[in-house]
Each structure stands twice: as structure tokens, then as C-alpha cells.
Amino acid sequence: MNMKKYFAVILFSVFSVFAFSAELSFFLGDNTDLKFDGEEYKEPRLKQSEAFSALAKIPFNKKGTTFLFLEASLSHSYEKIFGDHENSENEFIADLNVLKFSSIMECSAGKFFLDAGRLFLSDLSQSVFAQSLDGASAQFSASWLDVSAFGGYTGLLNLKNISIMNSLGYEWTPDDENDFYDFCAPYIAGGVKISFPYLLFNQTISLEGLGFWDTEGPADSPKDEDNRFYGTLRLDGPLAPMLFYGLSGTASSTDFSDFGFLGRANISLFPDFKSSSVTISASYASGDRGPFVPFIGFTQITACLSADEPIYSGISKAGLSASIVPIDKLYCAVGGDAVFLDRDDNAFDYYGFQVYGNAKYYLFSDLALTLSASHFSGDSSDSSRTEIALNAVISF
């Protein structure tokens, strides 16, 4: 037996031992979504989708602190506008959502977490960056300190599942779309975060810095001349028993001379009644007003439920939401927000009001049904939208 075959047998044997102890799970989902744009409820848009996901966790030691984690998915969607007898869309998407090598190391001072591969990350504000990334992250966590850093590349991700905006707030799409997989716009991304848990009076202070640099990749995307940088300060903690708050401010810039601003605040009450909660929240993303330029994030994240689907830029909203578990296995949530636009005049313009709700019921431990509905009543009929969706997920 030559050396190549010898090592191949060893590698196959080792992998077989690890794979035998792997944790495997599968998810099959079906979603039916109806959208009515406008106030006359004509020509609803139907989107029917099915998705199959496979998850695997393969340990490399007895404690399970070093492992390989995999999540892959295959989905199909059919979209049709009623009344339009010619145009409909059938799309298949294959994706490797997560493929990472992870290791957890303990010491007397705290724990180290290391991840490398395809990761999912989000920023402190949850409105700038929330997506997968090919790269690595490291974190040290102790009772008084939490420090983390990450770096990676976006050019190999699947554009069909992730929407990245350029510095002007526009999403790039290829001229000729491929089946199953299209490469994303290529950027180098990096960030550092530091948190001081329960620093004073049980309050937590967090700081985060993010940077995104345009580069080259498989996708022939247009050149983005402006590199983007973000800095976030977040405070959160208890105000009283069962009463908590969160407050964050994010500054954005492309050249460190002009700045955009994103602010978010919430107060949540958790009464001792059927796992319920009540939250008052508000957010503001700057437009072209006073000392600020329009705030533009990196990942395309919709700010409200209107037909226009605006991003967090030149927009503000405030509202109330609540959730409860009225009976065993049933989760219910409702909410509403008033939405305003920050236009080029001296006052905010009223944009509309949205209401939404969902109910999730675990019929069995491995079968969940979700019914959700929302309505956005806009200042113009073009921005109004009503949406109803039914989702079922079975795991095995």
C-alpha cells in the first residue's frame, strides 16, 4: 500500500468514527404567502415555496467542544400575480448556509470561542449587518468582559439568499441570472466588539466598529468607490424588576467627513403572566438633514411592511408590540407602528401605519404551524399592502 492510499484509509476511518457520532437533523418547510398591494385588493401576488434543510454537527472530541457544523438547503418558489396570465416565476435555490469549524476552550479567566468557515453574524443594532460571511471569528467571554472580532469575504455567497447594498443604498443584481446559485457583490468585511456586562447597576455597555471594503470576485459587479465604516454604542439592562431597556446609536461614514446616524430604543415589560411581554420601541435612520447624510447599512433590511419596502434610511417609526403564550404550545404576538419619512423639508412626513400579528402552534414536538398577517395603511394607495402567510415546518 503506497503512502497516499495509507493516509486515505486513515482519514476515511477517522471521519467514519466522527460521522458515526454526528448529530443530524432535517427540516421540511412549506410557505404560502399572499400580498395585496394597494387599497383595492386587486391582483394579489402569490408566492408558494418549499424548502428542505439539513443540519449536521460532527464532534472531534469526547466533550464536543471542537466540532464541524453544517447547514445546507434546497428550496423552490413559485411566484404569480393574479390577473397577469403571461408572467410567473419558478426558481430553485441551492445554498450552503453554514459550514464552520468551531472550538471552545476554557481557562480560569473565561472561555475562548473560535469559528472558521461560513458563519452567520449580526451587528449590535441588527440593522446594518445581518448575514452569512466566509471568514473567521474569535471571542473571549468572561463574567465582566466580552470581546470579539471577525473578518471575511462576501463574494462567494449566494445572491439569491442575501441582499447586499452599495454605498448609495442600491442592491446589485446580475444581468444574466443563473439557476440555483449567483455570486454576491464582493466585499471584505471586518469588525470588533467589546462589551462590559453588568458594569454598573447591572447595566451593560457595548461598543462595536465595522468596516466594509469593495474588492473583486467571481461576480462582475460594478465598482463601489466608497468604503463604509460604522461605529455603535449600546446600553441595555434592567430599570426595575421585570422592566428592561435597550438604547443604541450607530454612526456611519464613507470618508469620515460626512456622517449618517441610526438610533434605536426599546423598553420591555415581562410580567409574570403566561410568558408575556410588552415592548415600546422607536427607531430613526437619518436622511439628508442638518449635519447628517442619509444612513445606509450594508445588508438590505426592510424597515417597514409597506409595498415600497424602504430600507433604514431617511425613515423613523415608533410603536407598541406584545406577546403571550395563552395555552401550552401556542405563541401569539401582535404589534403596530407609525412610520414617518425624513424628506428634504423642515418636518417629517407621515408615511403610514402598520399592524401585524402571528400565531405559532406546535402541533407536535416536530411539527410547527405559523399563521401571520400584516397591513400597512399608507398615505398613498401605492404604498399600502396587506399580507397573509401560512407556514408549516416539520423536523426529523
Describe this structure in words.
- This protein has 396 residues and is mainly beta.
- The protein has one helix and 18 strands.
- Strand 14 and strand 15 form a beta hairpin.
- The longest helix is centred in the first third of the chain and has 18 residues.
- The chain starts with a helix and ends with a strand.
- About 2% of the residues have low confidence.
Q: Quick summary of this structure?
A:
This protein is 5% helix and 57% strand. The chain has one helix at residues 3-20; strands at 23-37, 45-59, 66-81, 88-106, 111-122, 130-141, 146-153, 187-200, 203-214, 228-240, 243-253, 260-269, 277-285, 315-324, 330-341, 349-364, 367-378, 385-395.
Compile the SSE list and pairings.
Elements: H1 3-20, E1 23-37, E2 45-59, E3 66-81, E4 88-106, E5 111-122, E6 130-141, E7 146-153, E8 187-200, E9 203-214, E10 228-240, E11 243-253, E12 260-269, E13 277-285, E14 315-324, E15 330-341, E16 349-364, E17 367-378, E18 385-395
Antiparallel strand pairs: 1-2, 1-18, 2-3, 3-4, 4-5, 5-6, 6-7, 7-8, 8-9, 9-10, 10-11, 11-12, 12-13, 13-14, 14-15, 15-16, 16-17, 17-18
